[in-house]
Amino acid sequence: MGTKAVAVFLKCRTDEGKSRIFAAMKKKHSQEAPIISEGRMSKEALFEIFADGKPADVGLMRVMKKYRLRDEKIRGRVAECVYGVIRYLRPLMAATGCSDPADENQLAILVHAWKVFAFRHSSTKIKTDEEKRWADRFAKYKGVRKIRESIPDWLDERGLSEIGESDWENVLQALNRKPEIAIRVNTLVTTREKLKARLAAVGIETVEDELAPDALRLPHYANVFVTEAFEAGEFEVQDVSSQRIAPLLDVKAGMRVVDACAGRGGKTLHLAALMQNKGRLLALDVSETKLQELRKRVRRASVAIAEAKTIDSQKVIKRLAESADRVLLDLPCSGLGVLRRNPDIRWRLQPEELEELIALQYTLLVQYATLVKPGGKLVFATCSILPSEGEWQTKKFIEEHGTSWSCDEELRISPANFDGDGFYAAVFTKKI
User: Fold this and answer.
1) Where are the alpha helices (DSSP H) in 71-150?
2) What predicted TM-score, i.e. pTM, was given to this entire model?
3) What is the pLDDT of residues 177-215, one digit of tens each?
């Protein structure tokens, strides 16, 4: 009830009058936030994703805003359904006989089928003859990897050729698991122990990670964005694998560091903390929209050394030649290492697009290597599981530029061996 409505309500002297006002406000509220089934909301979000081509998180958020969905439990169930259908789209289609996820009627069938099978709610049981036929077909296709693990044919062939059958099986299974939330403690304003205690005081359980000293994992879902600790800039949501990249640069306070593909600044903020807010940290990106979000995060995190700059021409890069002690190059990639969080990537990515990305990665690696001073370091990273976006790029770079560069370390993070996203990183040193 708004402020004016409250004033009118209190001035009204009769119970009958108050009842009328309350009923009118209730009716208005119901018109503003119509009641709609979770299934329909899930179907609408999926339609935006498959028919309109929106990323999964964007399509889901648009529907939640449309229906002013604030109940955390309902939001969670709708999100679980939407991501579940996307993640297991291929076995669901094989079981139901659906062929077009952009068709609204078929989407309704896929949403229902998702609730029936192995990804179903515990209270759902196979009841109808149609559901039994679905179950029979579903069992039939369990032995076909590309259907069971729900990936397109071309991607299955690519993974098989680059990774090998046994490892590919394990990686796919890991990428279809539901991800947990992880946060990175902002050591500029607090410690891991203090943040752990502060979150525990509001009922959020966290667990420390041994391989990422500033990481806390959340074994149970919690909306951490509404906490006072988040508003105070005491942490950022960041996968544990991603948190292992910035430390590879071995930055020191007072250095001049460039985050060359900064995006929205997750690793920029991590670098600032590792530098103890001393030195100069330049965040570059071709997207001004992403850098605007980076600037907001910088202010919330109390980072004083970061400057965001849009790459609007090659002159920006040429002016920075041999000016940086350290360069982080977290390159555009397929994103196949983050399928747990963004399962729709597998359906949006095309083989020709992957080839274009691989070519772009190498071009940018050679280009941004010019920013590093003699004796300085560059870390090249991609959130991909494919060697063609990782190890093979490093091999090619050293073969062609080994007289000027050495590769000191390579890090391959596989979701099959570590509970986190898939990443690759290489540490290069420019010879003096």
Assistant:
1) 72-87, 89-96, 104-116, 129-140, 145-148
2) 0.87
3) 989 999 999 999 999 999 999 999 999 999 999 999 999
Q: Is-catalytic flag, 12?
A: no
Residue among 12, 81, 383, 407 flagged as catalytic: 383
- Of the candidates 305, 297, 312, the one whose C-alpha atom is nearest the C-alpha of residue 258 is 305
DSSP letter at 178 equals: P
φ and ψ at residue 343, rounded to 5 degrees: -65, -20
Show Cβ contacts of residue 366 under 8 Å, excluding neighbours closer than 6 positions: 397, 401
Give the dihedral sign, CA 174/339/240/378: positive
Structural domains in the chain plus CATH codes:
3-32 (no CATH), 33-119+129-139 (no CATH), 181-237 (3.30.70.1170), 240-430 (3.40.50.150)
Q: Please, are residues 188 and 273 in contact by the beta-carbon 8 Å criterion?
A: yes
* Type of residue at 246: A
pLDDT, one tens digit per residue, over 384-402 is 999 999 999 999 999 999 9
